[in-house]
Each structure stands twice: as structure tokens, then as C-alpha cells.
Design goal:
globular, two-stranded antiparallel ribbon, binds benzoyl coenzyme A, 13 helices, single chain, mainly alpha
């Protein structure tokens, strides 16, 4: 926090002085300063952050499922070790994000309850099945690639704890994306069957990856406000275009094609044009009608219930440890 006036600590006795605080908050955002947990912030800013960070955290932990599906069937020890490390990283990302959300006054328990009750979303992408081993590569290349494109700007998000969590997450996502690319390259250069498997996976994951960036700008309910608050730095369509532009040459190097006959370089725009996205499918997935929505939530609820004893044991251990520390101090 740089300027004292811009960063007033919020307290009950200060209610009524919101206008001054609001001006200071707006000035801090305009000056590209970070807002920190103890700073005054508009209720709607806090609610928007909780919504986005919760959705992001839930995506990380639900995102473990489609990939974990292949851990036992990885084709070599090396691939298995890499995949296990990646899936563990996703759990870690979830934890950084739940912790960052806790700084806004919401507990991890509360957010998980909302996820399990279907009251908070997670990314549409994780409602698609991983049918073959090549899907692990396609997720790494496309899904992690889309995640990085979307998340690198979040390292400059106005809310400090979220921005700082994103720095480490992006470094790890970058490794994930490269392992996916390397996996697909190995398959693409392998037998004709392996090449066909890689192509099939790319065909199935391409369009859902483009949907990860959210609805088109003119239908994005939150973008304008989130960009004013510098939570988001770019619009959904801008980031989607950036992702397409990155992927086309990479697909060529992989020796694979992208399943879009309208994909072509536009000299005037200096971008690739691409075909229409099936927003009906996106809306259906968000409504819970994607191929795996039910399976993902059922598995998540079951994992939570089965993990109850771990949480109880950890709480008992912490209480015992606190007792011992207390006794030693007394
Ligand atoms: N899926 O006004 P909009 C990862 C919702 S990567 C589901 O544009 P916003 C990972 C949106 O929440 C994935 N819902 O919203 C990678 C809103 O509904 P509510 C996670 C979506 O927030 C590899 C409504 O549609 N990444 O974790 O301004 C392995 C209107 O949208 C989606 C993040 O979460 C979607 N694709 O922009 C493992 C990144 N798109 O909330 C894990 C952080 C939109 O009003 N999040 N909706 O009910 C963001 O950057 C933004 O939240 C979004 C959406 C760009 C996704």
C-alpha cells in the first residue's frame, strides 16, 4: 500500500464515511496500487472477487478429476510421475486460491459447501470426458494454454492476495502446458494410430477450450465492471483471440490440424479469423447439462465426505498442539 489516504482500514465506526473511502479506493485502483485485505473496498468489489476466485479455486480441484482418470493407465513410469505431479499442482492451486479468498472473509468450508450445493460454478471445460491417453496431452496444451492466456494478466489484478497467488500458479501452468505439448508431439510423430489419437483429442478439446474464456463481450455480465476495477485486464474476446493466434502456429509445428474450416490469417486485422462458437452448448454445460457435470459433482461430494476423517484428525492434532504449546508457555 503506497499512499496512506488511499488505503484506509475499514471499521464499523467508519460506516457513513464511504464516499471518502470510495474515492481513495478508486484513486488506488487508478494508480495501479494493490488493494490489500485490510483496506476499505466496495461490497460489490469484494463480492466479485469472491465469486471469481471461488470459481477459479473450484475449477482447479474439479480439474484434477479428468486427468487423474489416466494416472493408473499412463503408458510409462515417467509419464505417470509427470501426471501425478501435475494433478498435485492443481490441488495446490486450489489451496492458494481458497486461502486468497479467505482474506476477503469467506471460509474455505463455506465455498466448498456452495460448490457441493451447485450454488457456485467451476469452469465449463471440466465437464468433458477424457476418453484416451491423448486427452492428457490435449488438456495440457489447450486447456492449460488457455488458462495461462487468461491468468497471466491476473498477476496484475488489483487485489493483492489474488495477484500474488497467480504468479506461482502461472509458473506451474507453464510447465503443464509444455508437458502437454511434448506429449502430443510424441504421439503425433508416433505410429499412424497414435497420430490419429492425438488428432481426435485436439478435435474434441478445441472448441470447449475457446469457451473457457467466457461468453462473448457483448454478453459478458461482469467484464465491464471487473475491468474498471482492474480485476480483469482484458476482455473475454480479446484473450480468446490471443489464444487462437498462439495456437495456430503451434498446431502446425505439432503436425496436427485445428477443427475449424474458417480458421485463416486476416492480414488487415493481423489476427486469425475463426468460425462461430456453439454458445448453446456452452450455456447447456453451465446449466449442468454437459457430458460429465453430474459425475464431477458426485465425485467431488464423495471425496469431501470420505476426507472428513482427515479434516477431523488435522483439527484434533492442531488442538492438541495448541494445548501443548499453551502449557509450555504457561
Ligand atoms: N465456465 O460475465 P462473465 C483451471 C460464467 S482453468 C463456467 O464473462 P467473468 C485449470 C461467469 O462465472 C479455469 N462459467 O464472467 C486449468 C458468469 O456467471 P456468474 C479456471 C463461466 O467472471 C488446467 C457468467 O458466465 N480459470 O482452473 O467476468 C487444469 C458470465 O460471464 C465460464 C478461472 O477461473 C466458463 N468457462 O469472466 C486445472 C480464471 N465463463 O458467476 C485447472 C479466472 C464464464 O455470474 N476467472 N462463466 O454466475 C476469469 O478470468 C473469469 O471469471 C472468466 C469469466 C473469464 C472465466
Amino acid at each position: 500500500m503506497a499512499t496512506a489516504a488511499a488505503h484506509q482500514t475499514y471499521g464499523a465506526e467508519e460506516a457513513g464515511a464511504d464516499t471518502t473511502y470510495e474515492r481513495a479506493f478508486d484513486a488506488a485502483v487508478a494508480a495501479d496500487e494493490r488493494i490489500e485485505p485490510r483496506d476499505w473496498m466496495p461490497d460489490a468489489y469484494r463480492a466479485t472477487l469472491v465469486r471469481q476466485m471461488a470459481q477459479h479455486a473450484h475449477s482447479e480441484i474439479i480439474g484434477m478429476q479428468p486427468e487423474a482418470n489416466w494416472i493408473t493407465r499412463a503408458p510409462s513410469l515417467r509419464r505417470k510421475a509427470i501426471l501425478m505431479a501435475k494433478v498435485q499442482d492443481e490441488a495446490g492451486h486450489g489451496l492458494y486460491l481458497y486461502s486468497a479468498a479467505e482474506t476477503l472473509g469467506t471460509s474455505r468450508e463455506e465455498l466448498l459447501d456452495k460448490l457441493h450445493a451447485g450454488r457456485q460454478k467451476y469452469s465449463s471445460i471440466f465437464n468433458y470426458p477424457t476418453l484416451t491417453w491423448a486427452d492428457v496431452g490435449a488438456i495440457g496444451w489447450l486447456v492449460d494454454g488457455a488458462a495461462i492466456t487468461n491468468q497471466v494478466p491476473l498477476c496484475r489484478c488489483s487485489y493483492g492476495p489474488y495477484a500474488r497467488a497467480m504468479v506461482r500458479i502461472c509458473k506451474e501452468e507453464s510447465f503443464h502446458q509444455r508437458q502437454g505439448y511434448e506429449l502430443l508431439l510424441a504421439l503425433s510423430r508416433g505410429t499412424p494410430e497414435q497420430h490419429a489419437m492425438a488428432q481426435d483429442a485436439v478435435d474434441r478439446w478445441w472448441w470447449p477450450s475457446l469457451m473457457m474464456f467466457g461468453p462473448p463481450d457483448d454478453e459478458s455480465a461482469h467484464s465491464a465492471q471487473s475491468m474498471t476495477w482492474k480485476i480483469k485486464r482484458h476482455s473475454n474476446d480479446e484473450l480468446r483471440q490471443r489464444f487462437v493466434d498462439i495456437c495456430v502456429p503451434q498446431a502446425e509445428s505439432l503436425g496436427l490440424t485445428l477443427p475449424d474450416p474458417d480458421l485463416k490469417w486476416n492480414e488487415e486485422r493481423q489476427h486469425y479469423d475463426f468460425g462461430p462458437i456453439d454458445w448453446t452448448e456452452f450455456k447447456e454445460v453451465l446449466k449442468g447439462n454437459g457430458p460429465c457435470n453430474e459425475q464431477r459433482l458426485t465425485q467431488r461430494r464423495r471425496a469431501h465426505e470420505e476426507g472428513a476423517w482427515v479434516r477431523e484428525a488435522a483439527a484434533a492434532y492442531a488442538a492438541k498442539h495448541n494445548d501443548t504449546t499453551g502449557a509450555m508457555q504457561a
